[in-house]
Specification:
globular, mainly beta, four-stranded antiparallel β-sheet
Length: about 130
């Protein structure tokens, strides 16, 4: 089992920044990829960013490129998402996820590749 705990969400004005963190515990001696997804009210969960097991590869949804930066510290079992130039449409619950399957070495954006999920942290961007 793996436990994922997100932190760092909150209320920010448009144009502002937030830094989300995800701490993993439990089965963290294995190799695993990690990702961020988000879900706004009435919408499906969507891909935000992903990072491979080694941290050598990253991927971002098109609307996040240039604004968001995802990183991980394998020694601390943490992942961080720096979000800049936030927009009201970025308002959502942000979820951290871990991928222990055959695609652990990829920065996969496929929701079905992820085995474990955090509880989510709310990000609200006011206009």
């Amino acid at each position: 089992q793996v436990q994922l705990v997100e932190s760092g969400g909150g209320l920010v004005q448009a144009g502002g920044s937030l830094r989300l963190s995800c701490a993993a515990s439990g089965r963290t001696d294995s190799k695993y990829g990690m990702g961020w997804f988000r879900q706004a009210p009435g919408k499906e969960r969507e891909f935000v960013a992903a990072i491979s097991g080694t941290g050598g590869s990253t991927d971002y949804a098109d609307s996040m490129k240039g604004r968001f930066t995802n990183s991980r510290d394998n020694a601390k079992n943490t992942m961080n998402l720096q979000m800049n130039s936030l927009k009201p449409e970025d308002t959502a619950v942000y979820y951290c996820a871990a991928n222990f399957g055959v695609r652990w070495s990829y920065a996969t954006r496929r929701l079905i590749d992820y085995d474990y999920w955090g509880q989510g942290t709310q990000v609200t961007v006011s206009s």
